[in-house]
Amino acid sequence: MMRTQQTNAAVGRRGEERSALFAAGAVAGLLALGLVLSRPAFADVEIDGFVEADYGVATVEERPQGDIMLSETRGQVRLSSYGERGDAFLRLDVLHDRVANDETEIELREGYLRFTLFDDNLEAKVGRQPLTWGTGDLLFVNDLFPKDWVSFFAGRDDQYLKAPVDALRLGLFNLPFTVDLVLMPEFTPDRTPTGERLTLAVPEGITAGVETPSGTIEDGEVALRLSRYVGGASVALYGYYGYFPTPQGVRDAAAKTTALGLYHPELSVYGASARGAALSGVYSLEAGYYDSREDRAGDDPQVPNSSLRHIAGFERQVAEDLTASVQHYGEWMQDFGAYEDALPEGAAAADEYRQLVTLRLEKLVHYQTVRLSLFGFWSPTDEDGHGRALVSYDVSDEVKISVGANVFTGDSRATTFGMLDDDDNVFTRVRYSF
Amino acid sequence: MNTMNTIRVALGAALLAGALGVQSVNAQTTEGAATAAPTTTAPTAESVMKQAHMNLFYPADDGRAVVHMELTDKRGKSRSRDFIMLRLDVEDGGEQKYYTWFTGPSDVKRTSFMVWKDPVKDDSRWIYIPALDLVKRISANDKASSFVGSDFSYEDVSGRHWSDDVHTLVREEEQAGDMAWVVESTPKEKDSFAKKITWVSKEKMLPLREEYFNDKGELERVFTAEGFVDVDGIISVTKRTMTNEKKNHKTVVEFSEISYDVGIEDDIFTERYLKAPPKALLEGEGS
Fold first, then answer.
1. How far A380 CA lies from chain B's nearest CA (Å)?
2. How far is A127 from A29, CA to CA, in rounded Å?
3. What are phi and psi of A375, to 5 degrees?
4. Which helix (H) or strand (E) holds B56?
5. pTM score above 0.80
6. Is A13-41+97-363 in CATH node 2.40.160?
7. Which helix (H) or strand (E) element contains residue A16?
8. Which one, A187, A425, B87, B225, has least CB within 10 Å?
9. Which domains does chain B have, with CATH numbers?
10. What does the pLDDT look like over A326-354, one tens digit per residue?
């Protein structure tokens, strides 16, 4: 889950990071395309994509950032080629964002080459790509791959929840279980509110920005999954070695020893999941142990405690074209006593067992050209919540119109959704696909 | 990120493909049916429906087809779906696996869908949404609902088991140029229709027409199979239409590049190939 813990002052880092990522991705993309074009084994390159306009306004008056939440024009071009030995894919966005900078920027969303080796037993996918695994619906335990919470909360299309990663993904098949190994040479943090578009509540005393691990290979990330089917169910084991995806640690800023800054503490995760059919629906179970490597004793209040996190979910169709799903998520601090003892006098303690429940309702009408979607998060422990509503209409195969709203509630600025209490918004989007 | 439209589209289309892409009659079974149906003794209604079901859903051991689907509403506005489909029979008349890869329109392109069909329990279904790298398991207790905004229900296309209805042979008559058995079927338990009349071609042992009635006796939907092609001795349907008479909405499905016994392996129907199209899908051997 997107535990932002009142943090995330990503001041000035975004631009640099983006350009570095872009450069790496562009190289991978060009490499991929080059290989495709020079390899006669590949079929023709296919081109498709869309153009869209998004507009969203905050419904809370007198917001310091102004009323406009979303005002952008986007074009996406996709190039794909499938051949004898594998495939290559490029997804390029051209975005004119009038809220961020009123400039036109190009972002490489995907650019990869995928091929098989050793008689199809090994598959490699190299380059920029979205990565997802685990069983949660908008909740994540073993999926530590980067998310773009700004896009998610501001009303952009669902596909922008996943931020692209530069990675080498290896798949090993025809064993008793499938092995997926993901090597990410550079740590990619989540994109979290910076105060520009969405509210950011910086904890008291934090005066410096966010430090991200350096771009060296030692600061990279590794993720592993072993999975197989057992009957009709999918079961998996997971491992992760890297950093907390959101900057949840506090320490002296590297440059200025007098200032406190935020950073991404070291993290390892070990977990498991199962998903299958039950009671005419689909159940999912997932758990993960978050080993906070810089605070194994749990007595450093400036670094998150180790925790055990879990999701239990169930989805089923309750009426014609109406699907409902519920989930329960929990985050149990492992050294709560040590944490509590180490807290400075008068500081508010976090909950030992943070919980969250979600509800999703999806209804399709008018020959399924109209989709009505509601998604709610509620945390009884943080006493905060978030509601998402979306109505979309497929006018034709090419044109889709969407209208939606995001609502946040919570009395404390220190909670995930409470921080965004003033960021309630409504948005609309028109997309033409080609 | 539950893009339900996409899911529904994939879900329905894959089932449709499964049911339709392979709609055919095995030469051997035709022969068998012909000998079993001499002019003197008519076969039982149940055996006709069972034979038609087998020819429709279980020809050969596996198959591949390219499918184009056109949905037209009452104002004449149409939408389309294009995909390639692979099928493998795990057991003749029993479990099957389907794999579907969308090639159009643009907003669902590269989405893939997989079904492990189980005639006794609920099916297992998965969809892959490439922009999120998301594999989603879908609940599959929705056999009576419409899919893809098409006029077919999930059950129409994934195969309603012949033993779910009571069948009566009412007459023989000519239908679309073929002599046909006319069978009236009523569900054993309350269902989405009250009565169905099926015209099964005696020669092809395939349904040529089906009429679905509601409990007021009103005609709700009409199915027709038109256009047949012989693929390696197996008669296959190339065009199938479902019309909703009440809503004046129509779905036409056309098949091309139909091939059988392509040698599709069981491991195609796993998450690996949801994420990357298998060679067997793209190559279209034997077509």
1. 24
2. 7
3. -140, 130
4. helix B45-57
5. yes
6. yes
7. helix A13-38
8. A187
9. 45-280 (2.50.20.10)
10. 999 999 999 999 998 988 888 888 899 99
